[in-house]
Amino acid sequence: MKINSNTVIIGKRVILVPYKKKHVEKYWKWMQSEEIREQTASEELTIEEEYENQESWYMDEHKITFIILDKDLLLENERDENGYSNENDIKSMIGDVNIFFNEYEDIEGTGELEVMIAEPTSRRKGLAREAISILMGYGVEKLSTKKYIVKIGESNQPSIQMFNSMNFKQIGDVNVFKEILLEFENGDNNTNLLNLKNNDYFKTLIFKNWE
Q1: Residue 87: CA count within 13 A, CB half-sphere
Q2: Rounded Cα gap, residues 69 and 80, in angstroms
Q3: DSSP code of 104?
Q4: Is residue 189 classed exposed, middle or buried when 0-12, 13-18 and 19+ CB atoms within 10 A define those classes?
Q5: Does the N terminus or the C terminus of the chain have fewer Cβ atoms within 10 A?
C-alpha cells in the first residue's frame, strides 16, 4: 500500500521498513524454504515473479507490508541518531509483517495479520511479538482498523501461543485448510483496541521517512 511506502518505524528491538526492490532477492531466497512456504501458505515463485509481487503489493490498496529488521544486526557505526540507517537493510532483514484488509469481512476495517521470522537465529526472541504490536498500533492510529484477525495452521503452535498471549481468542473450529481463526478481543468500549496506540511503548516509537 502506498500509504506506508516511505514509512520507517523504529522500535526497541526491531525496525519496520517498507518492502522495496532492494529487499526482493533475500526475501525470495527465504521463500525457497518448503517449511516457510508451508507455514505461510505460499507458492514457490521465480525471482522474476517475486519482483512482480513486490510491485503489486506496493500498488495494492488492501495490503500493508513491512520488512522486519533486527536492530542487533546493525553495527553502531551503521546507525543514525535514532538507531537506524537503510544502507544495511539486507544484512539485518529477518522477516516481514503484514495487514490485509478483506472487503468480504463482516466488519469494515477488519485487518488480517501475518508475521514471518524467516531467519532461524532470530526466532523465539520476542521479535515477532514486537513487530505485530507495532503494526497493530499503526493500523489503529493511521488506518482506522476496527478489528484484527489471524489465520494460523493448526500445527504452528508457537504462533498460536503467541497470539493467545496477546488477547487473541479462537473463533470456531479448524477449517478445511487446517487453519484456526483467532480474533483480537477489543474489550469493553474498545479499550484494548484503543490501547494499542495509547500505551507507553507505542508512544516511544520513532517514525521517520525512508531516505
Answers
A1: 9
A2: 15
A3: T
A4: exposed
A5: C
